[in-house]
Known about the structure:
2 copies of one chain form a homodimer.
Chain A: E1 5-9, H1 20-27, E2 31-36, H2 43-48, E3 57-62, H3 70-88, E4 93-97, H4 107-114, E5 120-123, H5 128-136, E6 147-151, H6 156-165, E7 168-172, H7 178-187, E8 194-198, E9 206-209, E10 221-226
Parallel strand pairs in A: 1-4, 1-5, 2-3, 2-4, 6-7
Antiparallel strand pairs in A: 7-10, 8-9, 8-10
Amino acid sequence: MNGKLIGVGLGPGDPELMTLKAHRVIANAAVIAYPALENGDSFARSIAADVIPDAAREITIHIPMTQERAPAQAAYDRGAADIAAALETGRDVVVLCEGDPFFYGSFMYLFTRLADRFTTEIIPGVTSVTACAAAAKTPLTARNDVLTIIPGPLDSDTMRQRIEAAGAVAIMKVGRHLGKIRTLLEQMDLAPRARYIERASLPSERVLPLSEAPDPAPYFSMILIAKGQDPWLT
Amino acid sequence: MNGKLIGVGLGPGDPELMTLKAHRVIANAAVIAYPALENGDSFARSIAADVIPDAAREITIHIPMTQERAPAQAAYDRGAADIAAALETGRDVVVLCEGDPFFYGSFMYLFTRLADRFTTEIIPGVTSVTACAAAAKTPLTARNDVLTIIPGPLDSDTMRQRIEAAGAVAIMKVGRHLGKIRTLLEQMDLAPRARYIERASLPSERVLPLSEAPDPAPYFSMILIAKGQDPWLT
C-alpha cells in the first residue's frame, strides 16, 4: 500500500498564517519535501521550520534558477523520483509549498508527475494576493468586480489589455519588471491608485505608494490596483 | 483609547482551514461581530463556533437579501454603529469573515465605514478559489498564466471576453446563473475542461464535471477552467 502525496500550502510567510490543518499535517509528518535554491535556501522550509519534527526525513529539491526551463524540469524529475520512492515504502510525503500549492507554485510540476500513480491530497493556503491586500488595507473586490491576477513578466501590451478589462488587478512577481509596470500604469493614469507591497506578512513587510517602490523590486513583491467599481464602497 | 477593528478571514468552511492567527485572535476575543441572514443563520459564525469564547459579546449584523441594495447598506450602517460603540469602550472587535475579508466579502462595507476613525488589522484567509482548486485537484496557474476571477452574475458577452483573455478562470457565485454559464462554456468549447465544485472543504463538498452540475446550483458553488498554457504541465 503506497503512501499519499500531500501538497500543503503554508501561506505568505508569517508562520501564524499557516492553517490549523497544515500545522497538524506537518507536525505529524515522517517525510517532508520542499523546493530550495541551489545554495539550499528554502522559503517554504523557513515558514514551517518550527513545526517540522526532528525525526522527519527531508527531501530537498534543488531548483536551478536558469532562463532555460529544461534544467528545472530535470530537477523536478529527480525530486518526483525521490518522492515516489518514499511513497512506495508506504509513507505519506508532505510537500511544503509557499502560499497555496496550486497558485503559481512549483508543486504542480511534482503533482503532474505523480498524481497518476499515487493518491493525492491538497491543503489550500493563504495566497500572497490576499495577504498583500491585508497589508495594504485595500479591499480587493466586491460583488461583481472582476479580479485579474497578472504575472509581472507579461509584455506591456497584453498587460494593458488585461488591466483595462478588470475591476481589480494584482500584479505578481514584480521584481525586475517594476520599471516597465510603473511606466504602463502611469500611462493608464492608474499609478495614483496603485499600491506596492513587498514581503507581505513577514517582519520585513513594506507597503509603499507605487512612486516610491524600489527598482528593481525584490522577487516577493506585488502591485495592487483596486479600481473600485462598487459605488457603495466609495 | 479606542479598540482595534480586526477583520478575520476564516477560510472556505472547514474549521481546520482557519489560520493559527485567526484561531488565536478569536479565542481571545471579548467582542465578536458577524453577518447573518435575516433568520439568524451565519456561515461565518458556524466556521468559528468551536473557538468563540463563551464570555464573548456577539454583535449579529442581519443582512437583508434583497435585489435592491439600500436595505443591506442600512444594515451595514447599523452594524458599523454597534461596532463603533464597542470600539469606543476600548475593546477590540473581531469581525468574522468567510474566506478572506477583502475578497468578495461583506466586511469591506464595514471597513469603509470605520477605517477612517479606528485602527484596523486584517488577517487574510484561504479563499474559496484555491479551496475549490484543491478539492478538484486542478492546478490553477503556473508561471505566466493570467488568472481571472469572474462573478457569476456578469452578462454572457462580458464573461466571454474575460474568459478568452485568461489562462485560467474561476467563476464564483454560480448559483442560479449556472445555465447561462454552461451554455456559454459549451459555445466556447471549454465545457469539457470545466469543473464544478460546491461547498469546497465542507463535509457536503461535491466536485462534478460541468455537464452533471445541478441547475440551479447552490450559492456556494464555483466553476474552474484551467486552460493550461504551460507546456511543461501537459
